[in-house]
């Protein structure tokens, strides 16, 4: 019997088109979370490696084993411009999974950001490459290239299920994943969130000291004042 393959690679899947992505471009991650019912952000330990630009794109999910990066390299074979590589390694923290060479090739392939729940290396080179990179930390320990792993298959990353083609948005505060099936619904809700946020920002500019809803909320819930 032949040995089982070390990688599973899905070659293609539906992606959001550029006009749809453009609607979400520049949206603060907090606004998207509010439009999704106050959820969708990856775990707070997944942070920007450098102060790179905000981004929006289509999810290209990858999973790999500890201290191995064959699968994320294999993602280059199926990547399309506008993709975001999200690489799950279950938080392994004894070696890196990405470095500046891989991330530079991501950029060359049109990938707009790289996100992992593991570690990265070559931070100076990553800054030079210029695309946003998010990770839980940094280690110079390098990985092997043996597998196993998967590309274009569902993963869990930072407590969030990621399917290929989901919408991914990132800024200085973190990364949010919106299921592709919910994009139209969330887009409509986002318009209301933006309107609400603009109104609250106007209160602050106008010197308001309490939100207009506070008195009613306190009366409804009941308050016991103490000296």
Indicate the topology:
Elements: E1 7-9, H1 18-24, H2 29-35, E2 47-48, E3 55-64, H3 70-74, E4 83-88, E5 96-98, H4 100-108, E6 113-116, E7 119-120, H5 123-129, E8 133-135, E9 137-138, E10 149-151, E11 155-157, E12 160-162, E13 167-171, E14 174-178, H6 183-205, H7 214-221
What this model shows, in words?
- The structure is a single chain.
- With 227 residues, the chain is of the alpha/beta class.
- The chain has two domains: 176 residues, Glucose Oxidase, domain 1 (3-Layer(bba) Sandwich); 32 residues.
- Helices cover 29% and strands 24% of the residues.
- It is built from seven helices and 14 strands.
- The strands form three sheets. Strands 1, 2, 3, 4, 6, 8, 10, 13 and 14 form a nine-stranded mixed beta sheet that branches. A three-stranded parallel beta sheet has the order 5-7-9.
- Helix 2 packs across helix 6 and helix 4 runs parallel beside helix 5.
């Amino acid at each position: 019997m032949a040995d089982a393959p070390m990688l599973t690679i899905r070659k293609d899947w539906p992606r959001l088109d550029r006009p749809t992505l453009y609607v979400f471009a520049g949206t603060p991650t907090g606004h998207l979370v509010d439009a999704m019912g106050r959820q969708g952000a990856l775990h707070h330990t997944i942070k920007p490696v450098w102060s790179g630009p905000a981004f929006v794109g289509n999810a290209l999910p990858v999973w790999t084993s500890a201290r191995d990066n064959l699968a994320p390299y294999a993602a280059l074979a199926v990547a399309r411009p506008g993709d975001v590589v999200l690489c799950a390694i279950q938080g392994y923290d004894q070696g890196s999974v990405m470095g500046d060479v891989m991330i530079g090739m991501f950029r060359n392939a049109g990938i707009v950001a790289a996100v992992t729940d593991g570690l990265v290396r070559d931070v100076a080179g990553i800054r030079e490459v210029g695309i946003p990179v998010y990770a839980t930390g940094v280690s110079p320990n390098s990985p092997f290239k043996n597998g196993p792993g998967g590309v274009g298959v569902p993963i869990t990353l930072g407590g969030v299920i990621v399917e290929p083609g989901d919408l991914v948005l990132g800024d200085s505060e973190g990364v949010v994943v919106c299921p592709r099936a919910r994009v139209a619904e969330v887009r409509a809700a986002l318009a209301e969130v933006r309107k609400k946020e603009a109104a609250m920002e106007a209160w602050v500019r106008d010197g308001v000291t309490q939100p207009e809803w506070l008195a009613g909320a306190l009366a409804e819930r009941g308050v016991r004042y103490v000296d």
